[in-house]
């Protein structure tokens, strides 16, 4: 069972302590604490907003009544939800691919379309951290419709100190 308090404190230090470097020992602690689960080959996620609903009817003594809900309805789905470990404001996933290891870090309450709300720590096969990348998004409109496709990517952010 992972120590969620230790994981949350470690991630806070990794993300917030410096803008250009991170502590390599903290990155090793994080790698050791996370459970190893089979990595997804492809991870798909969907998030959306729909305009609020409305109700229409007839009220005695008032006449026709139309009530509109001003709040948008939101939905979200991720095919790898069961692979994440929750710790504080973070959800983390260990990824093992081609003799390399990665730890993906994402804020729980972050909107999927917000940039900078996720990080990826890259490790050598022996567990030595090499870099931390930050998430950026590329957005494409699907023809002339309100559908927007967001494809996340990673760009270099921090190096181990």
Summarize the structure.
This protein has 161 residues and is mainly β. It is 14% helix and 48% strand. A 7-stranded mixed sheet has the order 1-11-10-9-8-7-6.
Structure overview:
This protein has one domain. The strands form three sheets. The chain has a seven-stranded mixed β-sheet. A two-stranded antiparallel sheet has the order 2-5. A two-stranded antiparallel sheet has the order 3-4. The relative contact order is 0.20. The protein is 14% helix and 48% strand. α1 packs antiparallel against α2. It is built from two helices and eleven strands; from the N terminus they run αβαββββββββββ. By secondary structure, it is mainly beta.
What is the general shape? elongated
Distance between the termini: 29 Å
The largest sheet, given as strand count, sense and whether it forms a barrel, is:
7 strands, mixed
Mean pLDDT: 86
Q: What is the structural class?
A: mainly beta
Number of helices: 2
Count of domain modules = 1
Provide the low-confidence segments as ranges. none
